[in-house]
Fold this protein.
Amino acid sequence: MLLAPPSGHRNRGRFCAETVQRVITDSYGRLAATARVTTHLVVLAERLAAERLDALAHIEGAPGSGLPRVLFVCSHNAGRSELAAARLSHRAQGHVTVSSAGTHPAAAVEPAVAQVLTEAGVPSAEAALPKPLTDEVVRAADIVITMGCGDACPVVAGRRYLDWPVADPEGAPIAVVRTIRDAIDAHITELLDSLPSTA
């Protein structure tokens, strides 16, 4: 399947057309493996490919923002890691590059997770997408934060690894999911305090 390169992608020209097409096609295949609804799969694949190409450019030393890069990883990328990534992106206000992924991504984000993010004023909650863990995003990250995936998360030398023991919101009542969101927020406060470049 031939997919279009990510529109307006900031790494346009950094990679040959074959590399871009390979990443897009692979991203489509990875998402299609777990998708329940395929209506917008091409657009979602382009979004995932853009994130992977940005990470690849960072790994290869392309000039970039120099911002700290944080990757959140959990099993399904439908709950904890989505909450953490959305809250950190919102609170860091562009001072951190944030990614999230799952070792076994779900088909969709937990509805209660999207709800508590919207309640907290996170505008991108509806656009959240469970993504597969790829080599590029792990290698590009400065900090990898695991949230329940244990040994399934690959270890790359030279990266800072943290594990946040936070309850899984899957199937939990909304009041419990709010408590999980707040627990993640407390961890994010500590993380931001440890990143002087975010000040």
Q: What stands out?
A: Helices lie at 17-32, 41-59, 80-92, 111-119, 135-140, 174-193. The mean pLDDT is 82.
